Amino acid sequence: MDDNIQEIKSILKKYNQEHLIKHYETLDENHKKQLIQQIKNIDFSLIDNLYKNTKKEEKNNQDEITPIEYLDKYKLNDEYKYYENIGKKAIKEGKLAAVTMAGGQGTRLGHDGPKGTYDIGLDSHKSLFELLCDSLKEEGKKYGVTIPWFIMTSKENNKATVEFFEKHKYFGYQKDKNIFFFIQGELPMIDTEGKILLNEEGLIKLAADGHGGIYESLVKNGMTEKMRQMGIEWAFIGGVDNCLVKMVDPVLMGLAIDKKVTVACKSIVKANPHEKVGVFCKRNGKPNVIEYSEITDEMAEQVDEQGELLYGESHILCNLFSIDAVERMGAAPLPYHVAYKKAKYLDENGKIVEPDSPNAYKFEAFLFDAFGKVDEMVVLRVKREEEFAPVKNADSAGVDCPRTARELYKKYYNLD
Fold first, then answer.
1. Is 398 in the same domain as 259?
2. Residues 226 and 128 reside in one and the same domain
3. What pLDDT is stored for residue 1 in this prediction?
4. What is the per-residue pLDDT for 60?
5. What percent of the chain has pLDDT over 70?
Protein backbone atom coordinates (compact mmCIF):
# COMPACT_ATOMS: atom_id res chain seq x y z
CA MET A 1 0.00 0.00 0.00
CA ASP A 2 0.96 3.64 -0.45
CA ASP A 3 3.25 5.01 2.27
CA ASN A 4 0.65 7.66 3.08
CA ILE A 5 -2.28 5.25 3.32
CA GLN A 6 -2.54 5.47 7.12
CA GLU A 7 -2.74 9.24 6.88
CA ILE A 8 -5.37 8.89 4.13
CA LYS A 9 -7.37 6.42 6.26
CA SER A 10 -7.32 8.84 9.18
CA ILE A 11 -8.67 11.69 7.05
CA LEU A 12 -11.38 9.48 5.52
CA LYS A 13 -12.46 8.19 8.94
CA LYS A 14 -12.77 11.75 10.27
CA TYR A 15 -15.21 12.63 7.47
CA ASN A 16 -16.98 9.25 7.28
CA GLN A 17 -15.66 8.56 3.77
CA GLU A 18 -13.76 5.29 4.38
CA HIS A 19 -15.61 3.61 1.48
CA LEU A 20 -13.38 5.51 -0.96
CA ILE A 21 -10.51 3.06 -0.44
CA LYS A 22 -12.57 -0.09 0.09
CA HIS A 23 -11.61 -1.36 -3.38
CA TYR A 24 -8.10 0.12 -3.32
CA GLU A 25 -6.36 -3.28 -3.54
CA THR A 26 -8.31 -4.24 -6.67
CA LEU A 27 -6.98 -1.24 -8.62
CA ASP A 28 -3.89 -1.33 -10.82
CA GLU A 29 -0.88 0.73 -9.76
CA ASN A 30 -1.77 3.68 -12.00
CA HIS A 31 -5.32 3.90 -10.64
CA LYS A 32 -4.06 3.50 -7.07
CA LYS A 33 -1.83 6.54 -7.50
CA GLN A 34 -4.64 8.52 -9.13
CA LEU A 35 -7.08 7.71 -6.32
CA ILE A 36 -4.62 8.66 -3.58
CA GLN A 37 -3.83 11.93 -5.35
CA GLN A 38 -7.53 12.68 -5.79
CA ILE A 39 -8.18 12.08 -2.09
CA LYS A 40 -5.27 14.36 -1.14
CA ASN A 41 -6.73 17.09 -3.36
CA ILE A 42 -10.22 17.00 -1.81
CA ASP A 43 -11.21 19.72 0.63
CA PHE A 44 -13.28 17.41 2.85
CA SER A 45 -14.33 20.25 5.12
CA LEU A 46 -15.80 22.10 2.11
CA ILE A 47 -17.62 18.97 0.87
CA ASP A 48 -18.97 18.37 4.37
CA ASN A 49 -20.31 21.93 4.56
CA LEU A 50 -21.80 21.71 1.07
CA TYR A 51 -23.62 18.52 2.04
CA LYS A 52 -24.96 20.11 5.24
CA ASN A 53 -26.24 23.04 3.17
CA THR A 54 -28.34 20.64 1.04
CA LYS A 55 -30.29 19.78 4.19
CA LYS A 56 -31.03 23.35 5.19
CA GLU A 57 -34.45 24.69 4.39
CA GLU A 58 -34.51 27.67 2.07
CA LYS A 59 -35.01 30.80 4.15
CA ASN A 60 -37.26 33.56 2.98
CA ASN A 61 -34.99 35.81 0.97
CA GLN A 62 -34.82 39.23 2.59
CA ASP A 63 -32.51 40.71 -0.07
CA GLU A 64 -33.54 44.08 -1.47
CA ILE A 65 -33.83 43.71 -5.25
CA THR A 66 -33.90 46.90 -7.33
CA PRO A 67 -33.49 47.64 -11.06
CA ILE A 68 -30.05 48.33 -12.49
CA GLU A 69 -29.25 51.12 -14.93
CA TYR A 70 -28.24 50.13 -18.44
CA LEU A 71 -27.22 51.79 -21.69
CA ASP A 72 -28.67 50.86 -25.08
CA LYS A 73 -25.79 50.51 -27.54
CA TYR A 74 -27.89 51.87 -30.39
CA LYS A 75 -29.26 54.86 -28.49
CA LEU A 76 -25.89 56.28 -27.48
CA ASN A 77 -26.06 58.75 -30.41
CA ASP A 78 -23.00 61.06 -30.40
CA GLU A 79 -21.42 59.22 -27.48
CA TYR A 80 -21.21 56.02 -29.54
CA LYS A 81 -18.17 57.22 -31.49
CA TYR A 82 -16.58 58.62 -28.35
CA TYR A 83 -16.70 55.27 -26.53
CA GLU A 84 -15.83 53.35 -29.68
CA ASN A 85 -12.65 55.38 -30.23
CA ILE A 86 -11.50 54.80 -26.65
CA GLY A 87 -12.05 51.05 -27.09
CA LYS A 88 -10.37 50.95 -30.50
CA LYS A 89 -7.25 52.57 -29.10
CA ALA A 90 -6.99 50.01 -26.28
CA ILE A 91 -7.55 47.08 -28.68
CA LYS A 92 -4.90 48.36 -31.09
CA GLU A 93 -2.51 48.56 -28.13
CA GLY A 94 -3.03 44.83 -27.48
CA LYS A 95 -4.86 45.26 -24.19
CA LEU A 96 -7.70 42.79 -24.91
CA ALA A 97 -7.83 38.99 -24.68
CA ALA A 98 -10.72 36.64 -25.41
CA VAL A 99 -11.60 33.83 -23.01
CA THR A 100 -13.93 31.04 -24.14
CA MET A 101 -15.54 28.64 -21.68
CA ALA A 102 -15.57 25.31 -23.51
CA GLY A 103 -15.60 22.61 -20.84
CA GLY A 104 -18.83 20.93 -21.96
CA GLN A 105 -19.59 17.94 -24.11
CA GLY A 106 -22.17 18.02 -26.91
CA THR A 107 -24.24 15.24 -25.36
CA ARG A 108 -27.56 17.11 -25.45
CA LEU A 109 -26.96 17.74 -29.15
CA GLY A 110 -26.33 14.07 -29.86
CA HIS A 111 -22.68 14.96 -30.53
CA ASP A 112 -19.83 12.73 -29.41
CA GLY A 113 -17.09 15.16 -28.46
CA PRO A 114 -16.43 18.61 -27.02
CA LYS A 115 -19.28 21.02 -27.68
CA GLY A 116 -16.92 23.43 -29.46
CA THR A 117 -16.26 20.82 -32.16
CA TYR A 118 -19.96 20.69 -33.06
CA ASP A 119 -21.01 21.53 -36.65
CA ILE A 120 -24.25 23.57 -36.53
CA GLY A 121 -25.09 22.67 -40.12
CA LEU A 122 -23.80 25.58 -42.20
CA ASP A 123 -22.76 24.90 -45.78
CA SER A 124 -19.17 25.46 -44.68
CA HIS A 125 -19.53 22.75 -42.00
CA LYS A 126 -17.46 24.89 -39.67
CA SER A 127 -17.43 23.95 -35.99
CA LEU A 128 -18.41 26.36 -33.21
CA PHE A 129 -14.69 26.77 -32.45
CA GLU A 130 -13.95 27.79 -36.03
CA LEU A 131 -16.87 30.22 -36.18
CA LEU A 132 -15.61 31.95 -33.04
CA CYS A 133 -12.07 31.93 -34.38
CA ASP A 134 -13.20 33.46 -37.71
CA SER A 135 -14.77 36.33 -35.79
CA LEU A 136 -11.65 36.87 -33.67
CA LYS A 137 -9.35 36.87 -36.69
CA GLU A 138 -11.60 39.25 -38.61
CA GLU A 139 -11.62 41.70 -35.70
CA GLY A 140 -7.87 41.34 -35.24
CA LYS A 141 -7.31 42.38 -38.86
CA LYS A 142 -9.30 45.57 -38.29
CA TYR A 143 -6.96 46.64 -35.51
CA GLY A 144 -3.69 45.21 -36.82
CA VAL A 145 -3.33 42.79 -33.89
CA THR A 146 -3.87 39.14 -33.04
CA ILE A 147 -6.38 38.87 -30.20
CA PRO A 148 -4.93 36.31 -27.75
CA TRP A 149 -7.38 33.46 -27.18
CA PHE A 150 -7.63 31.56 -23.89
CA ILE A 151 -9.81 28.42 -23.94
CA MET A 152 -11.07 26.76 -20.77
CA THR A 153 -11.57 23.02 -21.23
CA SER A 154 -12.46 20.32 -18.72
CA LYS A 155 -10.56 17.19 -17.69
CA GLU A 156 -13.20 15.31 -19.66
CA ASN A 157 -12.64 17.10 -22.96
CA ASN A 158 -9.20 18.74 -22.78
CA LYS A 159 -7.35 16.03 -24.75
CA ALA A 160 -10.00 15.88 -27.49
CA THR A 161 -10.15 19.69 -27.70
CA VAL A 162 -6.39 20.13 -28.07
CA GLU A 163 -6.24 17.30 -30.63
CA PHE A 164 -9.04 18.98 -32.62
CA PHE A 165 -7.08 22.24 -32.73
CA GLU A 166 -3.88 20.39 -33.67
CA LYS A 167 -5.71 18.67 -36.53
CA HIS A 168 -6.89 22.06 -37.82
CA LYS A 169 -3.51 23.75 -37.28
CA TYR A 170 -5.08 25.93 -34.58
CA PHE A 171 -7.05 27.78 -37.29
CA GLY A 172 -4.04 30.02 -37.87
CA TYR A 173 -3.26 30.68 -34.22
CA GLN A 174 0.01 29.56 -32.58
CA LYS A 175 -0.15 27.39 -29.48
CA ASP A 176 1.46 28.90 -26.39
CA LYS A 177 2.05 32.15 -28.27
CA ASN A 178 -1.46 33.50 -28.85
CA ILE A 179 -3.73 30.55 -28.05
CA PHE A 180 -3.71 28.89 -24.63
CA PHE A 181 -5.66 25.99 -23.10
CA PHE A 182 -6.37 25.57 -19.39
CA ILE A 183 -8.55 23.17 -17.43
CA GLN A 184 -11.62 23.98 -15.37
CA GLY A 185 -11.80 23.02 -11.68
CA GLU A 186 -13.86 20.08 -10.44
CA LEU A 187 -15.63 18.99 -7.27
CA PRO A 188 -16.64 15.50 -6.13
CA MET A 189 -20.27 14.42 -6.51
CA ILE A 190 -21.96 13.09 -3.39
CA ASP A 191 -25.01 10.96 -2.68
CA THR A 192 -27.97 11.96 -0.50
CA GLU A 193 -26.16 10.64 2.58
CA GLY A 194 -23.12 12.84 1.96
CA LYS A 195 -20.92 10.00 0.71
CA ILE A 196 -18.52 10.90 -2.12
CA LEU A 197 -19.24 8.78 -5.19
CA LEU A 198 -16.77 6.62 -7.09
CA ASN A 199 -16.91 6.30 -10.86
CA GLU A 200 -16.86 3.07 -12.84
CA GLU A 201 -13.08 2.89 -12.62
CA GLY A 202 -13.06 3.13 -8.84
CA LEU A 203 -11.84 6.74 -8.86
CA ILE A 204 -13.55 9.80 -7.36
CA LYS A 205 -16.52 10.89 -9.46
CA LEU A 206 -15.84 14.53 -10.27
CA ALA A 207 -17.99 17.17 -11.98
CA ALA A 208 -17.01 20.59 -13.36
CA ASP A 209 -17.49 23.41 -10.85
CA GLY A 210 -19.70 25.59 -13.10
CA HIS A 211 -18.91 28.73 -15.10
CA GLY A 212 -18.27 30.55 -11.83
CA GLY A 213 -15.06 28.54 -11.57
CA ILE A 214 -13.60 30.55 -14.46
CA TYR A 215 -11.93 33.16 -12.23
CA GLU A 216 -10.19 30.66 -9.96
CA SER A 217 -9.17 28.52 -12.96
CA LEU A 218 -7.64 31.51 -14.78
CA VAL A 219 -5.61 32.42 -11.69
CA LYS A 220 -4.57 28.91 -10.59
CA ASN A 221 -3.49 27.93 -14.10
CA GLY A 222 -1.31 31.03 -14.41
CA MET A 223 -3.39 32.53 -17.22
CA THR A 224 -3.84 35.97 -15.64
CA GLU A 225 -0.10 36.11 -14.99
CA LYS A 226 0.49 35.28 -18.65
CA MET A 227 -1.96 38.01 -19.68
CA ARG A 228 -0.08 40.57 -17.61
CA GLN A 229 3.22 39.51 -19.21
CA MET A 230 1.59 40.11 -22.61
CA GLY A 231 0.40 43.60 -21.65
CA ILE A 232 -3.25 42.54 -21.55
CA GLU A 233 -5.50 44.58 -19.25
CA TRP A 234 -8.96 43.28 -20.19
CA ALA A 235 -10.48 39.85 -20.80
CA PHE A 236 -13.79 39.20 -22.53
CA ILE A 237 -15.31 36.00 -21.13
CA GLY A 238 -18.02 34.17 -23.07
CA GLY A 239 -19.35 30.69 -23.80
CA VAL A 240 -18.46 28.44 -26.72
CA ASP A 241 -22.07 27.77 -27.67
CA ASN A 242 -23.02 31.30 -28.81
CA CYS A 243 -22.02 31.39 -32.48
CA LEU A 244 -22.76 35.13 -32.76
CA VAL A 245 -20.75 36.19 -29.71
CA LYS A 246 -18.88 39.47 -30.27
CA MET A 247 -15.77 39.08 -28.16
CA VAL A 248 -14.15 42.22 -29.55
CA ASP A 249 -16.42 45.20 -28.93
CA PRO A 250 -14.74 48.62 -28.80
CA VAL A 251 -17.90 50.31 -27.51
CA LEU A 252 -18.16 47.97 -24.52
CA MET A 253 -14.45 48.35 -23.83
CA GLY A 254 -14.55 52.13 -24.23
CA LEU A 255 -17.45 52.38 -21.80
CA ALA A 256 -15.60 50.34 -19.19
CA ILE A 257 -12.47 52.46 -19.52
CA ASP A 258 -14.31 55.79 -19.56
CA LYS A 259 -16.63 54.92 -16.66
CA LYS A 260 -13.69 53.53 -14.66
CA VAL A 261 -15.46 50.24 -13.90
CA THR A 262 -13.79 46.83 -13.76
CA VAL A 263 -16.75 44.86 -15.16
CA ALA A 264 -18.88 45.58 -18.26
CA CYS A 265 -21.60 43.21 -19.41
CA LYS A 266 -23.85 42.83 -22.43
CA SER A 267 -27.56 42.24 -22.14
CA ILE A 268 -30.47 41.64 -24.46
CA VAL A 269 -34.01 42.69 -23.64
CA LYS A 270 -36.26 39.83 -22.56
CA ALA A 271 -38.44 38.41 -25.33
CA ASN A 272 -41.41 38.74 -22.96
CA PRO A 273 -41.85 39.56 -19.25
CA HIS A 274 -41.89 35.89 -18.27
CA GLU A 275 -39.01 34.58 -20.39
CA LYS A 276 -37.06 32.12 -18.24
CA VAL A 277 -33.73 33.93 -18.09
CA GLY A 278 -31.59 35.52 -15.41
CA VAL A 279 -31.75 39.32 -15.47
CA PHE A 280 -29.43 42.06 -14.26
CA CYS A 281 -30.46 43.87 -11.09
CA LYS A 282 -29.03 45.32 -7.90
CA ARG A 283 -29.11 43.13 -4.83
CA ASN A 284 -28.71 45.08 -1.62
CA GLY A 285 -27.26 47.92 -3.68
CA LYS A 286 -24.66 45.77 -5.49
CA PRO A 287 -24.73 44.58 -9.14
CA ASN A 288 -26.15 41.09 -9.51
CA VAL A 289 -28.19 38.73 -11.66
CA ILE A 290 -31.50 37.45 -10.36
CA GLU A 291 -32.81 34.09 -11.56
CA TYR A 292 -36.27 34.00 -13.16
CA SER A 293 -37.43 31.72 -10.35
CA GLU A 294 -36.73 34.52 -7.84
CA ILE A 295 -38.80 37.16 -9.65
CA THR A 296 -42.47 37.56 -8.81
CA ASP A 297 -44.97 38.04 -11.63
CA GLU A 298 -45.48 41.59 -10.42
CA MET A 299 -41.75 42.36 -10.66
CA ALA A 300 -41.45 40.68 -14.05
CA GLU A 301 -44.21 42.86 -15.49
CA GLN A 302 -43.13 46.21 -13.97
CA VAL A 303 -42.29 48.90 -16.54
CA ASP A 304 -40.71 52.35 -16.39
CA GLU A 305 -42.10 55.63 -17.77
CA GLN A 306 -41.05 54.65 -21.30
CA GLY A 307 -42.81 51.30 -21.06
CA GLU A 308 -39.52 49.37 -20.76
CA LEU A 309 -39.36 46.40 -18.39
CA LEU A 310 -37.64 47.33 -15.11
CA TYR A 311 -36.24 43.79 -14.94
CA GLY A 312 -35.75 43.17 -18.62
CA GLU A 313 -31.99 42.95 -19.19
CA SER A 314 -31.09 39.29 -19.76
CA HIS A 315 -27.63 38.07 -18.79
CA ILE A 316 -26.20 36.33 -21.88
CA LEU A 317 -22.76 35.34 -20.56
CA CYS A 318 -20.96 38.11 -22.48
CA ASN A 319 -18.81 39.91 -19.95
CA LEU A 320 -15.68 42.06 -19.98
CA PHE A 321 -13.41 42.12 -16.92
CA SER A 322 -10.24 43.94 -16.02
CA ILE A 323 -7.45 41.52 -15.14
CA ASP A 324 -7.42 43.06 -11.65
CA ALA A 325 -11.08 42.07 -11.24
CA VAL A 326 -10.49 38.51 -12.47
CA GLU A 327 -7.64 38.06 -9.98
CA ARG A 328 -9.68 39.51 -7.13
CA MET A 329 -12.65 37.27 -7.96
CA GLY A 330 -10.39 34.24 -8.36
CA ALA A 331 -8.69 34.65 -4.99
CA ALA A 332 -11.30 32.43 -3.29
CA PRO A 333 -14.12 30.16 -4.50
CA LEU A 334 -17.55 31.69 -5.05
CA PRO A 335 -20.59 30.29 -3.22
CA TYR A 336 -21.68 26.95 -4.64
CA HIS A 337 -25.19 26.12 -5.83
CA VAL A 338 -26.49 22.56 -5.64
CA ALA A 339 -27.98 20.57 -8.53
CA TYR A 340 -29.70 17.20 -8.04
CA LYS A 341 -28.59 14.88 -10.87
CA LYS A 342 -28.61 11.29 -12.09
CA ALA A 343 -25.11 9.84 -11.69
CA LYS A 344 -23.77 6.39 -12.47
CA TYR A 345 -21.47 5.13 -9.72
CA LEU A 346 -19.59 2.18 -8.22
CA ASP A 347 -21.27 0.95 -5.04
CA GLU A 348 -19.59 -0.49 -1.94
CA ASN A 349 -19.95 -4.01 -3.34
CA GLY A 350 -18.02 -3.08 -6.46
CA LYS A 351 -21.10 -3.05 -8.68
CA ILE A 352 -21.90 -0.29 -11.17
CA VAL A 353 -25.26 1.32 -10.43
CA GLU A 354 -27.21 3.20 -13.12
CA PRO A 355 -30.07 5.06 -11.40
CA ASP A 356 -33.40 5.81 -13.07
CA SER A 357 -33.87 9.06 -11.19
CA PRO A 358 -31.67 11.76 -9.60
CA ASN A 359 -29.47 10.34 -6.84
CA ALA A 360 -26.53 12.71 -6.43
CA TYR A 361 -25.60 16.30 -5.67
CA LYS A 362 -23.39 18.30 -8.00
CA PHE A 363 -22.00 21.67 -6.92
CA GLU A 364 -21.54 24.62 -9.24
CA ALA A 365 -20.52 28.25 -8.93
CA PHE A 366 -22.19 30.89 -11.09
CA LEU A 367 -20.04 33.51 -12.82
CA PHE A 368 -22.42 36.35 -11.98
CA ASP A 369 -22.20 35.72 -8.24
CA ALA A 370 -18.89 37.59 -8.42
CA PHE A 371 -20.63 40.77 -9.62
CA GLY A 372 -21.50 41.61 -6.01
CA LYS A 373 -17.79 42.12 -5.36
CA VAL A 374 -17.82 45.37 -7.36
CA ASP A 375 -19.64 48.59 -6.52
CA GLU A 376 -20.55 49.50 -10.08
CA MET A 377 -20.51 47.96 -13.53
CA VAL A 378 -21.73 48.87 -16.99
CA VAL A 379 -24.64 46.97 -18.58
CA LEU A 380 -24.86 47.51 -22.34
CA ARG A 381 -28.00 46.39 -24.16
CA VAL A 382 -27.28 44.88 -27.59
CA LYS A 383 -29.51 43.33 -30.24
CA ARG A 384 -30.44 39.67 -29.83
CA GLU A 385 -30.33 39.03 -33.58
CA GLU A 386 -26.78 40.39 -33.79
CA GLU A 387 -25.12 38.85 -30.76
CA PHE A 388 -27.02 35.92 -29.30
CA ALA A 389 -27.47 32.62 -31.13
CA PRO A 390 -26.86 29.89 -28.53
CA VAL A 391 -26.74 26.17 -29.28
CA LYS A 392 -27.96 24.52 -26.09
CA ASN A 393 -30.68 22.05 -27.09
CA ALA A 394 -31.37 19.49 -29.79
CA ASP A 395 -33.51 20.68 -32.72
CA SER A 396 -36.53 18.89 -31.25
CA ALA A 397 -36.62 21.50 -28.46
CA GLY A 398 -37.30 24.25 -31.02
CA VAL A 399 -35.41 26.98 -29.12
CA ASP A 400 -31.71 27.76 -28.69
CA CYS A 401 -30.94 24.83 -30.96
CA PRO A 402 -28.77 24.26 -34.07
CA ARG A 403 -31.62 25.27 -36.40
CA THR A 404 -32.33 28.60 -34.68
CA ALA A 405 -28.60 29.39 -34.31
CA ARG A 406 -27.96 28.55 -37.96
CA GLU A 407 -30.83 30.78 -39.11
CA LEU A 408 -29.59 33.72 -37.01
CA TYR A 409 -25.99 33.23 -38.15
CA LYS A 410 -26.93 33.06 -41.85
CA LYS A 411 -29.19 36.09 -41.57
CA TYR A 412 -26.54 38.18 -39.79
CA TYR A 413 -23.80 37.29 -42.28
CA ASN A 414 -26.16 37.40 -45.34
CA LEU A 415 -25.40 33.77 -46.25
CA ASP A 416 -28.84 33.00 -47.76
1. yes
2. yes
3. 46
4. 59
5. 98
DSSP for 73-107? GGG-THHHHHHHHHHHHHHHTT-EEEEEE---B-G
Between CA 131 and CA 258 the distance in angstroms is 31
Query: In this predicted structure, what is the pLDDT of residue 58?
Result: 62
- Averaged pLDDT for residues 27-50: 94
User: What does the pLDDT look like over 115-170, one tens digit per residue?
Assistant: 999 999 999 999 999 999 999 999 999 999 999 999 999 999 999 999 999 999 99
Which class for 149: exposed (0-12), middle (13-18), buried (19 or more C-beta within 10 A)? buried
Domain match, 255 and 347 both: yes
367 shares its domain with 321 = yes
Please say whether the beta carbons of 254 and 84 come within 8 A.
Answer: yes
How many separate domains does the chain show? Answer: 2
Task: Provide the whole-model pTM.
Answer: 0.93
CA geometry: angle at 338 spanning 333 and 339, to 5°? 130
The dihedrals phi and psi of 16, each to the nearest 5 degrees, come to 60, 45
Rg (CA), the chain: 23
Note down the domain range covering 10. 1-41
Contact (Cβ atoms closer than 8 angstroms) between residue 51 and residue 42: no
Mean pLDDT across 340-352: 93
Report the pLDDT value the prediction gives residue 57, as an integer from 0 to 100: 67
Contact 227, 52 (CB under 8 A): no
Residues 190 and 245 in one domain: yes
Tell me: do 326 and 180 sit in the same domain. Answer: yes
Residue type present at position 228: R
What is the domain-level CATH number for residue 203? 3.90.550.10
Identify whether the C-beta of residue 206 lies closer than 8 Å to the C-beta of residue 375: no
Instruction: Specify the amino acid at residue 180.
Output: F
